[in-house]
Design brief:
- By secondary structure, the chain is an alpha+beta fold.
- The strands form 2 sheets. Strands 1-4-2-3 form a 4-stranded antiparallel β-sheet, with helices on one face. Strands 5-6 form a two-stranded antiparallel ribbon.
- A hairpin with a 5-residue loop joins β2 and β3.
- α4 packs antiparallel against α5.
- The protein starts with 15 loop residues before the first strand and ends with a strand.
């Protein structure tokens, strides 16, 4: 167990691949509480965050930013303690020398459902504004399905084998988030 006086240095933690040799996330992280740093292919820090279930959080990040998730540094703790986790997060960001994109300009992209509405074509947008509520819901679901298909293709190209299932209810709002 880490105490507040034992903030681990990011430089002292080994990199581990985001995906294992079989294209799966580290299943040993399921239900684990801790803090993680995500790095791109060049080992440039992209995000520092903490979670009550690192596996689920890392899966969400992979879906939202597949080209930015190649390496991890992880520190688990036994019991949730926001103060300790925030202290470590702040120390790791300070050690990096700059806010990573996921903790600054790209925070929404990393941490919130994907808004498929932003990817509507001009034709879809025109149809949406002319449609009644039922028509809008149907159109949003179709846009969300198209964006979902693109995401799944990107993940397949990365060699991801972990099962990815989106919440079907959110598609009616044009949002994509894992179930």
């Amino acid at each position: 167990m880490i105490s507040e006086t034992q903030t681990p240095s990011l430089a002292d933690i080994d990199y581990i691949p985001y995906l294992d040799d079989q294209g799966e996330l580290q299943e040993s992280l399921q239900g684990k509480i801790g803090i993680y740093a995500i790095f791109d292919q060049d080992k440039t820090l992209q995000l520092v965050n903490y979670s009550r279930d690192m596996y689920l959080s890392l899966k969400q990040h992979l879906v939202r930013k597949p080209q930015s998730c190649y390496w991890l540094k992880i520190k688990t703790i036994d019991r949730p303690n926001r103060t300790i986790l925030e202290t470590i997060r702040d120390a790791w960001i300070a050690e990096n020398g700059a806010n990573p994109p996921g903790n600054s300009i790209d925070e929404t992209i990393w941490n919130h459902p994907i808004d498929a509405k932003q990817m509507m074509t001009d034709e879809e947008h025109s149809t949406y504004t002319k449609s009644d509520e039922l028509g809008q819901i149907k159109l949003l679901k179709n846009v969300a399905r198209r964006v979902e298909s693109q995401i799944l293709e990107q993940l397949k190209a990365r060699g991801v084998q972990t099962e990815i299932r989106f919440n079907p209810k959110l598609k009616e709002q044009g949002l994509l988030d894992l179930k």
